[in-house]
Design brief:
Elements (H helix, E strand, L loop, with lengths): L8 E2 L6 E9 L4 H17 L4 E9 L6 E7 L8 H8 L3 H6 L3 E16 L5 E9 L4 H16 L5 E9 L1 H4 L4 H5 L9 E7 L2 H7 L2 H10 L2 E16 L5 E2 L2 E2 L11
Antiparallel strand pairs: 1-5, 2-4, 2-5, 3-4, 3-9, 5-7, 6-8, 6-9, 7-8, 10-11
């Protein structure tokens, strides 16, 4: 079953995987960057076994100009032979566009908790991390305090907790080399999907949340707002945007 508002699912060892990408792009590359992303890169990634969906966003104000979010069957997809072959063999168009990337953040994550379903027209991403030894307390704060307060009243469609794993994010690759330097990564990320960005942003105020989060062992670091540009499901079946598609069988979840 998909989770309903207020009934978030801790997805345990079978958690879906998420690849989070944030970046700026040099102005002289931007038009071609967007054509490449839409016409080649997203379809190429969604053809990799295990990739479920892709979303692209443009920043509203501060933060990297673009965000891409890929949902996968599990984090193991990012170490699969098929995906690693993509990273090792960039296309000619990729080789042309990648040098225009700036301020790249790339993180392979486990979606350890989520509530709601569907895709919102806007998103807020909060980068954060647990204080040493406070992982479980920080998770409880997200699942209980934040979800109970925000999901009913903050114009949210869906809310998720993503926990990055450097072992699956990986190191240097031919694609990374094209970007001219190492990528940054993340620790944890809270991802809020919204149908009313102004209302959601007013509720998700880091200054207002910081003290309670800190007491629970969750350290909040940055917040950025994005409008959705494009969303696409793969043709492989299974879940897409937190819900099973017609004719597909939902993957098992654990409470």
């Amino acid at each position: 079953m998909t989770s309903s508002i207020g009934e978030g699912k801790n997805q345990g060892p079978a958690a879906p995987g998420v690849l989070l990408v944030l970046n700026d792009v040099a102005s002289e590359f931007e038009e071609e960057f967007n054509r490449w992303y839409q016409q080649q890169h997203v379809p190429e990634r969604l053809a990799v076994p295990g990739f479920r969906s892709a979303r692209r966003y443009r920043a509203v104000d501060s933060g990297p100009a673009y965000m891409a979010v890929y949902e996968c069957d599990s984090i193991e997809v990012f170490t699969s032979k098929a995906y690693q072959e993509r990273l090792a063999n960039p296309t000619d168009w990729t080789r042309k566009v990648m040098p225009g990337f700036r301020n790249m953040l790339r993180a392979a994550c486990r979606q350890t908790w989520s509530t709601g379903a569907g895709v919102g027209g806007a998103a807020i991403i909060v980068q954060c991390k647990p204080a040493p030894g406070r992982d479980e307390s920080a998770r409880r704060f997200v699942e209980a305090r934040l979800a109970e307060e925000l999901m009913p009243s903050a114009a949210l469609v869906r809310m998720s907790l993503w926990e990055a794993d450097p072992d699956y994010t990986g190191g240097a690759s031919p694609e990374m080399a094209l970007r001219g330097g190492p990528d940054r990564s993340a620790d944890w990320a809270l991802f809020f999907e919204s149908h009313d960005l102004r209302k959601s942003a007013a509720a998700i105020n880091l200054q207002g949340l910081a003290a309670a989060a800190l007491a629970a062992g969750l350290l909040l670091s940055s917040c950025a707002k994005y409008h959705l540009m494009h969303a696409r499901c793969s043709e492989q079946g299974g879940e897409c945007f937190g819900a099973p598609r017609p004719g597909s069988q939902a993957l098992p979840r654990r409470n």
